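Take a careful look at the sequence and tokenised backbone pasted below. I need to know what the token row says about the fold.
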Amino acid sequence: MADFTIEKIPCFDPAKIAMSGQAFRFNVIDDFHTELVAYGRYLQIAKLDEDRFAFSCTGSDFEKIWRSYFHLDYDYASLLASIPSEDRYLKAASYFSYGIRILRQEHFETLISFIISQRRSIPSIMTSVERLCSFTGREALMPDLSGDIFVKPVKGKYYAFPTSREMSSMSLTDIASLGVGYRADYIESAVRNNPDLDSWDNLSDEDLYSELLSLRGVGKKVADCVMLFSYARHGRFPVDVWMQRIQDKYYGGSFDTTDYPDTAGIIQQFMFFYERNRNI
């Protein structure tokens, strides 16, 4: 019998998270199922009813990996309630984006993925990331999906995101073959220099930001994304063309984050998701 864990989780919508641009290996299967690969594992999530979800993992793995990954110990309902009604755009964005949570992804995967992401569409980013994972070829750990809760995975094989060591044998030509364009040089530099990303966990925001900016090809937006989506620095506010458009149109060119010193990154995700998806 398959191992699975059932959890009641308010303010949680895996499909919206999959479409929020935080991670590039998170996909919607159908109206009730999503799948992702993270931490070297395949995970499928089945929506059972409004706030109940089944995860294709043991209870111990859920507590050890996925609770933190999905930021489940944070009270998103209180944050949503605290948004002032006077900010009509943000109120609408937060309502539309109900269920999005900030992921806590592996450092190296997040760094490489967001280097790849620069000036590219999400589908093209996902394609390059998948090419990288299949190139290095370490298969992800697959759960037993037997029974009637989960469905057949979309693909026959799933690969783990490579470690820096696994990528060290790739030449610049190999990296360029992934379709990453000029970013190949930046990726090769990150692999060659092999920064100790785990040792940066306890740095201050300022020092972490400085270390990330010291890496070749990492600018302000990529550094903020890595801090937000991997180091759980939820006060960061990444600004790309979508976010600048929002600020220009609704906030006189700049959104004041001082009211959200510890949650500006969550607010940013609500805005980003709303602006990209509300007219679809």
